[in-house]
Amino acid sequence: MRAVRVLAIIPTVVVTATIAFVLLRVIPGDPAALMLGLDASPGELQQLRHELGEDHPIWEQYADWLGGLARGRFGDSIHYHAPVAQLIAERLPVTLWLAAAAMAVTVLIALPLGIFAAVRVWSPFDLGVLAATQVGLAVPNFWAGILLLLVFSVTFKWFPLQGYAPLSAGVGAWVSHLALPAVALGAARAAQLMRFVRGSVVEELSREYVRTARGKGLGERTVLLVHVLRNALIPVLTIAGLQFGFLFGGAIVIEQVFGLPGMGQLVLEGIFARDLPVVQGAVVVLAVLVSALNIVVDLLYGLIDPRVSVE
Amino acid sequence: MSARRNRPLAVGLTLLTIVLAGVCYETLLGGNADIRIAVADRLEPPTRVHVFGTDDLGRDVLARVLGGGGIAFEVGFVAVGIGLAAGVPLAMAAVRWRRWPARAIGQIMDGLMAFPAILLALAIVAVLGSGYVQAMIGIGVGLVPVFWRQTRAQALVIENLDFVTAARALGASENRILRRHILPQIVPLLVIQATVAFSGAVLSEASLSFLGVGTQPPTPSWGRMLLDATHALSVAPWMAIFPGIALGVTVLGINLLGDGLRDALDPRLRRAAGV
Q1: Residues of chain B neighbouring A130 (CB-CB closer than 8 A)
Q2: Is residue A213 part of a domain?
Q3: pTM of the model as a whole
Q4: A267 lies in which domain range?
Q5: Is the CB of B226 less than 8 angstroms away from the CB of A146?
Q6: How many structural domains does chain A have?
Q7: Nearest-CA neighbor of B192 among B84, B75, B86, B70?
């Protein structure tokens, strides 16, 4: 059954790739004209049409696009004169690290605060957490990023203003370049996750088995850690998984604030240079990544909660 | 629940009223303060004349913040309108004709859902070009599957309720059942969903403009103002602070309004924990 679920990624990839194809190849009518602008000579247009494969029928272009994807090929960038797959391979690690670090920030903030708030429900601490989540949800991540830059890079000069250092350049440099973007991206997600953690724990705490556990004379700590959390965190996992979509979407914007050379910058450079193959490839890779992560979360859900059968 | 005891609704409405009053004042009475360039006054910190300071071209930041609010609301309304206008009828069609249209529409909607909203909007902007109309369309298209999924799920639940069976037994046609019995039941949910989508759309417009592909200068937009602010972060921090506060307060107001509406319109959705 699980193998079947993993295979379910295939139709998702096909549909995603088709949407990207329709959006960026079919709707523009003549992508070559769109890419070159109004002042292109007929010769240049003809040349680009040939490079894009536009001189073939549309269904043939579609088959080529899908076939290329299956072999990990996305065509060539017009602007960079390089295979799109190579550009993506250079940029993807930055975005993946950013998303992973932001996810870590999200979980590290949301779990402890959400659980504490739920244990002391309607206490001043809980009300404070609830108010903070409302603010966290309303603050756009890129503005949070700008404020972090203003405080920690411009005023205190603790962190670099812009740029990225790969892990190979040393852990210290890598962390200092990734810390602020990860916090900016993760904080808003944490606000959302915290609301779910709190709600889920409060709900579990009101169940009969908790009364039984307490009646047996178990300490509050044991009741919470052994009994309640195991049940309460199952639905939280799904919500945490859904955050991946938001994280990758947010990463596109956050990369711009901190000058990180990731997938978001690649998409934007593609848009500004009217380099449709780059936009098309990067968009598909990001969308497929989000789908794949959601499927992984679904599988984990089935592993953790035996009551859930993953169809 | 009475409106007096519904605190999120009251706070949300208050915040939005303040923002909207400012926006109306600027757009209806203030004229074109947002494009009045006065290079002599550039990068002035907040003073009594320029309460929020001036930007790199000497324009009053307060006027531009209020002008940007107009754009934010406009984009929000149009984008949510696109999402509703396409998502709800498609969902109804999927419920009415189960076989092939439902399957095909479902596949496309699931595919669209796989795209992070901002990414879909970027792809659409890549084709249509930069600008706030294109941004509206991009954000609106991203909202279609959201409304589609909500409406369809709810319609499928309601369709199995006794009163629908009764209507069917009395000989009501499928179209009539959808229009007169199912749709009205979904309206409260759609109102709540539209509020949530609205705050998302406002944030998306700001993000797209911040990336440089949304609203184009000289039209004021909170996202674009924040982009300009990043170039003058060490000399004019006020340029980065006030548009962000305006954006945050607006989104907070809409979110609270949404929470309040959920409490008021659909008591079944209210969580015991008050989340």
Answers
A1: 275
A2: yes
A3: 0.89
A4: 85-304
A5: yes
A6: 1
A7: B84
